[in-house]
Design goal:
The complex is a heterodimer of chains A (240) and B (401). With 240 residues, chain A is of the alpha/beta class. Chain A contains 7 helices and 10 strands. The chains are: A alpha/beta (240), B alpha+beta (401).
Chain lengths: 240, 401
């Protein structure tokens, strides 16, 4: 695969002067204007900021779905901008997990099969795949709902399936884009407890975009974006 | 992985049964039409060959005029009986020569009448044309010499005139000639041109000349060459003999024609094969149209499933894996179409073959080719939509509503 030679002084995620420009010339639109950011292994980072502040663009770059216009993004010391599309796909496949905004589950496909999906691309044999998917669904509290399709599940349940799909591969980093966006407070708390547990027990690094202060409070660190720049970056006082 | 992809494709197809069926209809019709055409055409060709073989490959036909068929030149010089005798005497390795003159005549028996072909010939005719007499007897020498009013009828004529009654004794009337039925020919069925070979009345040549045609001419000779002897040599010898008898100078063209069955067979099978090829080509066009139908639906499918593609790409599917997924789906679809087409066409061919009275000749080659072709249609027409899916930007695709 890759020679991910990680040394002690290297961060898991490192952004140096990252800019992202959409369009050219007069129509050029700066989404990111030079971001410096380091995220260490095992961190739980909340990313906040108003819409249009560049946090989604930054997440896409961090998630290797997009590449910076200028600047350097190093994941485990590897410069992502220099990788081919297939190589970036490989990074996503083996190291990253995503919880997309609005769940983004495959419709008309059972919860179990949705969770199995990333394992299929990892070439995990069918038997092991099934066992791991079932186990992960149990972890997120969906035992007994395996054969239901997203349409038959509530919003909270769908979000749990999305989380199960993201963590079934034991990723190094979990990117969550507003994981509690469409949920009521009680459901949101359940989801956040689940995410916090993953960070604590499985040592999964978590980067979470959220609008809500209460949700950000679950994280250990909060990064605020404004107009394509990092406005503030502080450790949360509250210990979890 | 491929197995997973196939399962995925099958599930996707099952989700839209109605749409899938409509999509593959073009392929079904295309494959079905091609196989049916080729199978029926092959049957017809086989039938022509078989019938020509039954007529005997050692048969030569000597006809007056420059060319076979319509538009014979006006200075046609007809044959006399003596020409046939000369062929038998002078050309080696000849088994039999039958003079043949024919006329279409209304045959009447009692209150029944039937328009049929009356042929004037002799007993050699039965030998040359591979026919035998089922009941009754051949002509006697004295009948042939004297031009007696006797006839031998084919099965169709017997049925039409005598109906159910088993005995076919009595006199039938051919124009002003009333002749006694002395025999019935063994049935032979249709010939290559679809003509009923049992719709025939044979009378002695002399009777024909005196009572029906009123001249001494012979329309043609049918010559059978001895088994194992070269028909080419006999053909050449007859030609030379006839040129000599007709005093043709070396610069003159033949004003007669000697054809062997191979030429006739080639001519007849050539027509069937050309027709088969043309019809199959037309049918193949519908395969192309079917392919375009598949491309259309696959493009719709890619658009509909943009989000799904986005999810797959974001989660870690390679471009080529998404490409394969859609390509396999298109190929599975078109192969299904091919299989259904094969089943339908074979059923239709068996039925059509019995309707058209041609033998059903199963052509494994065309079935395999048609199937492979249908799969290839899936690959070719599925590639563009699949590529479109694989090239999607995952970020855009995820945002797609």
């Amino acid at each position: 695969m890759f020679a991910l030679g990680q040394t002690d002084n290297q961060s898991l995620i490192e952004l140096q002067g990252v800019t992202k420009v959409y369009g050219t010339g007069q129509a050029a639109m700066y989404a990111l204007r030079g971001i410096d950011l380091r995220i260490e292994e095992g961190e739980f980072v909340a990313v906040m900021g108003p819409s249009g502040s560049g946090k989604s663009t930054c997440m896409n770059i961090l998630g290797c779905l997009d590449t910076p216009t200028a600047g350097v993004y190093k994941f485990k010391g590897i410069e992502v901008g220099k990788l081919t599309r297939d190589q970036r796909t490989r990074l996503r496949r083996f190291y990253l997990g995503f919880v997309f905004q609005g769940y983004n589950l495959l419709n008309r496909t059972s919860a179990l099969e949705n969770v199995e999906l990333p394992l299929i691309y990892r070439r995990v044999p069918a038997g092991v795949r099934r066992a791991r998917a079932l186990e992960t669904l149990e972890t997120v509290g969906l035992k007994g709902w395996e054969s239901h399709t997203p349409g038959e599940l509530s919003g909270g349940q769908q979000q749990r399936v999305a989380i199960a799909r993201a963590i079934v591969t034991d990723p190094a980093v979990l990117f969550a884009d507003e994981p509690t966006g469409n949920l009521d407070t009680a459901r949101s708390r359940e989801i956040m407890d689940l995410v916090t547990g993953l960070n604590r027990d499985k040592r999964i690094t978590i980067v979470m975009v959220t609008h809500e202060r209460d949700m950000a409070a679950y994280a250990k660190r909060t990064v605020r974006f404004l107009d394509g720049l990092v406005e503030s970056d502080e450790q949360n006082g509250r210990a979890t | 992985m491929l197995w997973n992809t196939i399962l995925l494709a099958l599930r996707e197809i099952k989700r839209n049964v109605m749409r899938s069926v409509l999509t593959i209809l073009g392929i079904v019709i295309g494959v079905g039409a091609v196989i049916t055409m080729v199978t029926i055409g092959g049957g017809a060709t086989a039938q022509v060959k078989e019938q020509i073989a039954s007529m005997g490959s050692n048969l030569l036909m000597v006809t007056p005029g420059k060319r076979l068929g319509p538009g014979q030149s006006s200075n046609t010089v007809l044959f006399k009986v003596s020409d046939g005798e000369a062929i038998l005497m002078n050309v080696g390795s000849i088994a039999a020569v039958a003079p043949v003159s024919s006329k279409s005549i209304q045959a009447v028996f009692g209150n029944q009448n039937w328009s049929t072909q009356v042929t004037g010939s002799d007993n050699q005719y039965f030998k040359v044309t591979n026919r035998s007499i089922r009941t009754g007897r051949q002509f006697s020498d004295s009948e042939l010499r004297a031009g007696a009013a006797v006839c031998i009828v084919g099965e169709t004529v017997r049925k039409k005139l005598f109906g159910g009654q088993e005995s076919s004794e009595g006199n039938i009337r051919l124009e002003k000639l009333s002749c006694q039925v002395i025999g019935v020919l063994e049935s032979k069925g249709q010939n290559t041109m679809g003509m009923d070979q049992d719709d025939i009345v044979v009378i002695p040549l002399r009777t024909f000349q005196r009572r029906l045609s009123g001249n001494q001419d012979v329309a043609m000779f049918q010559v059978s060459v001895q088994q194992g002897a070269s028909t080419d040599k006999a053909q050449r010898d007859i030609r030379l003999l006839m040129r000599e008898r007709r005093h043709l100078s070396p610069s003159d063209d033949d004003n007669f024609n000697v054809m062997d069955m191979k030429e006739i067979a080639k001519m007849l099978t050539g027509t069937t094969q050309l027709l088969t090829a043309l019809l199959s080509a037309v049918a193949a066009v519908s395969l192309l149209v079917g392919g375009i139908g598949i491309m259309n639906i696959m493009l719709v499918s890619v658009t509909e499933r943009t989000r799904e593609i986005g999810i797959r790409l974001a989660i870690g599917a390679f471009e080529r894996e998404v490409l394969m997924q859609f390509l396999v789906e298109a190929v599975v679809l078109s192969s299904f179409g091919g299989l259904i087409g094969i089943v339908l066409s074979l059923t239709a061919s068996v039925w059509l073959a019995s309707m058209l009275r041609v033998p059903f000749v199963f052509n494994a080659g065309i079935v395999v080719i048609a199937f492979l072709f249908s799969a290839a249609v899936g690959v070719i027409f599925g590639y563009f939509p699949a590529l479109k899916a694989a090239r999607l930007d995952p970020i855009e695709a995820l945002r797609y509503e």
